[in-house]
Amino acid sequence: MSEQDHDDIRRLLQDAFPPVIAELGRDLWPAMSRTLDTRSRRVVWYDWALAGLAGSVIAAFPDVILVLFYHL
């Protein structure tokens, strides 16, 4: 490809994707911090069921640990 082709492609891409102005009007961290502080740390029953199931499978079949680590 010639330099002219590169310039044409660059110009077409710049026309298709205008520059993004990413300036925020305010700091978002205080609002995020308040949201995280007010959110409850609740564990639902099926989380405990999955943990118990995983523990019992690992206790019954110790070789499954390697398979679980492979998929993590």
Give a brief rundown of this model:
This protein has 4 helices and no strands. It has helices spanning 3-16, 29-38, 45-60, 64-71.
Describe this structure in words.
The chain has 72 residues and is mainly α. The protein has one domain. Helix content is 67%, strand content 0%. It has helices at 3-16, 29-38, 45-60, 64-71. The longest helix is centred in the last third of the chain and has 16 residues, at 45-60. It is flat. The model has no long low-confidence stretch (mean pLDDT 86).
**End-to-end span in angstroms?**
44 Å
Strand content: under 5%
What value does the Rg take, in angstroms? 26 Å
**What's the order of the H and E elements?**
HHHH
| Overall number of strands | 0
Global shape: flat
The biggest sheet amounts to: none
Poorly predicted runs of 5 or more residues? none
Helix/strand class? mainly alpha
Instruction: Return the domain count.
Output: 1
Give the rounded overall mean pLDDT. Answer: 86
- Name the helicity range: 55-70%
Number of helices: 4
Primary descriptors:
single chain, 72 residues, mainly alpha, 4 helices, 67% helix
